[in-house]
Amino acid sequence: MAATMKNVEEIRTRVILGEFGVKNVHTTDFPGNYPGYDDTWDLQKFQKKFSIDLVSLDENSIEFDMVGIDAAIANAFRRILLAEVPTMAIEKVFIYNNTSIVQDEVLAHRLGLIPIKADPRLFEYRNAGEESSEEEGSEIDTIQLQLKIKCSRNPRASKDDSDPRELYLNHMVYSRDIKWVPIGNQADVFGESSIGPVHDDILIAQLRPGQELDIIMHCVKGIGKDHAKFSPVATASYRLLPEITLLEPVEGEKAERLKSCFSPGVIELEDVNGTKVAKVVNSRLDTCSREVLRHSDLKDVVKLGRVRDHFIYTVESTGILPPEVLVMEAIKVLMAKCQRFLNELDSADMD
């Protein structure tokens, strides 16, 4: 019975990587599925098991562990980061003059995908039902940008020069050439805030003497579900925590080969009485390639698994908002969804 209970615990808590497949991939811890296990959801039990641990944080990315939740909730959180955290992006492009070789619609598309550094929490959603002209926007829902540039010959260039960088002025149009034009009282409200492209080295177009661009752009608030340009993250992904278990001591040449089967830092060799013995040091670094299973004399000495409810998140921001702010905003969106669902249940009960 003890062995059976041990197998059940493994099925409930571990995903096993086998030579020809992956086992225990489905969630099975629902009430009544296993005798002797009370899997009814309990708030206190959840609060005791659930934790978020910060692993690393820098200007553009964050890595953290979310422990004690189901894959459905973990994936919902990832999808919210991708598609439901709002940002500001270029929505309307008014091209007054474009004599470059880039077509108007291609140019507008390129401009729309440039990340704009502006805090979306300070703006309202644009009311799509307004009957006013599409060109109009107010200081609470619109950011106006301008791109006005003309290419000309460099009078100081030598006759022998063939490099366009020496021959022409303004022949490369970059995102740094986009300037913010405050609407209403935005100049007073935002003050020194540098509203504009996140990166100033994004190439937009190339010009030759006589060609010019004269463009006005309107940025509005939106979400990635409507268009990818509103997505605040470059990547938002998660993986399960790897778990590597050595079933028997591995020594000598076998230990060397075992170490080479895993990512650097996962397996290390330690000297025991003059013999090299393999030891699992940090299974978190493993990419779960299952390379070890190709070796007939090694595949039975190691067990590869993943912890089912331990999710390692990696979130990389586009630079519009810091990554830690994106995580908090995603949590707020998830909370709002839950509250909306509870309100619907309450209204259904009243009916």
TrEMBL record:
GO cellular component terms, A-Z: cytosol; nucleoplasm; RNA polymerase I complex; RNA polymerase III complex
GO molecular function: DNA binding; DNA-directed RNA polymerase activity; protein dimerization activity
Entry keywords, A to Z: Acetylation, Cytoplasm, DNA-directed RNA polymerase, Nucleus, Transcription
Gene3D superfamilies: DNA-directed RNA polymerase, insert domain, RNA polymerase, RBP11-like subunit
Location in the cell: Cytoplasm, Cytosol; Nucleus
Domain DNA-directed RNA polymerase RpoA/D/Rpb3-type residue range list: 61-344
CDD domains: RNAP_I_II_AC40 (cd07032)
InterPro entries linked to this entry: DNA-dir_RNA_pol_30-40kDasu_CS, DNA-dir_RNA_pol_insert, DNA-dir_RNA_pol_RpoA/D/Rpb3, RBP11-like, RNAP_Rpo3/Rpb3/RPAC1, RNAPI/III_AC40, RNApol_insert_sf, Rpo3/RPB3_RNA_Pol_subunit
Chief localization: cytoplasm
Biological process annotations from GO: DNA-templated transcription
HAMAP family on file: RNApol_arch_Rpo3
Function in brief: DNA-dependent RNA polymerase catalyzes the transcription of DNA into RNA using the four ribonucleoside triphosphates as substrates. Common component of RNA polymerases I and III which synthesize ribosomal RNA precursors and short non-coding RNAs including 5S rRNA, snRNAs, tRNAs and miRNAs, respectively. POLR1C/RPAC1 is part of the polymerase core and may function as a clamp element that moves to open and close the cleft.
Protein family membership: Belongs to the archaeal Rpo3/eukaryotic RPB3 RNA polymerase subunit family.
Designated name of the protein: DNA-directed RNA polymerases I and III subunit RPAC1
Lineage, broadest ranks: Eukaryota, Metazoa, Chordata, Craniata, Vertebrata
